[in-house]
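Mods, move this if it's the wrong board.
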Amino acid sequence: SLPSIAFIGIPAKVVPFPQFEVQAQFAGMVWSGRAKLPTEEEMAAAVEAEEAAKRRMGVPTKYYHVQGAAMFEYNDMLLAQCGLDPLPSWRRAMFEESQFNKKNFPDSYRDAPLPPRQHYEELSAAA
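Not the wrong board. Structure tokens:
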């Protein structure tokens, strides 16, 4: 048990900086006593449940740190444990559109300018 250690930025296939900020907020709030970690038993059960789910999906162990869209639920869970609001929904809309473009336009998706944030806010409001 190492309650004063945190690994920020390990997940892959995520929107990195908002997630790293959420992880850092969570660690800081735990260390300051403003948020509590789950019990060791609860954390061990959560790890086992996630590993079991990944095994059922056939995910190789070396890819267990890949989150993709699951990052949104993870970030919201950490923020909730801190008593903070979830990240704005436009971030998910931006991620989903980016993933769509990456899949459908793999050679050019990086070349097009991004729409303004208002575009993503409107997408998330319509969902």
